[in-house]
């Protein structure tokens, strides 16, 4: 009985798979016929239908095939606009960016030009990778979104554009922080201290400002520890000053106790160095 049921299931699954494959082949054959058609109006009607039904791959192919026939006609602008979105909805952001850009250049007075300017910037945001990778597209998204805001200060998209800029800046901030952390992990403490300080300078309003300052202090403390004896006093004095700056700037921070420990240890080390220097002077 169990074998019979299993055999029946295999037949049903196989039949379903064959049916689906048959439907796909039928659709592919039908689309091929549409693409080969010489009836421009029919092809345009089908392209519009595919677009409405979210069959963007089919719509894209038909729109591109129709380009030479509709260029310069009343249909051209709307078709160009929809072709840009065909690429966008297929997540081909590279081509989408190019079509949105060209739309604004080809139809500068169009009521859709402002929207396409925004969408061009947005495609760069969509191409922005995770923080560890190259952030060229992130920077382009920021630049184009800011240009959009400057050109269209009254646009309903301004708030969204500002939000995208904030998200992009957060990603750049994370990348800079990860770079600083990498220097620290590799034992390049001076480079780590400089980079952590740079993150704080570049993002002064960051919610993680106290973390960046703490990491900078800790990095410079370790750098001072590893320095030649004749350089240590000067560098520990800097650590001491940075600890005081942290206390003044980040009152109530969760890193305050750690900074206090570093400051106490630094003060003791400074005293030891000064005592050793005093002994050497007395012996001369």
UniProtKB/TrEMBL annotation:
SUPFAM superfamilies, alphabetized: TPR-like
Keyword Membrane: yes
Keywords: Cell outer membrane, Membrane, Signal
Outer membrane lipoprotein BamD-like domain residues: 44-207
InterPro entries noted in UniProt: BamD, BamD-like, TPR-like_helical_dom_sf
Keyword Membrane: yes
PROSITE patterns: PROKAR_LIPOPROTEIN (PS51257)
Name of the featured protein: Beta-barrel assembly machine subunit BamD
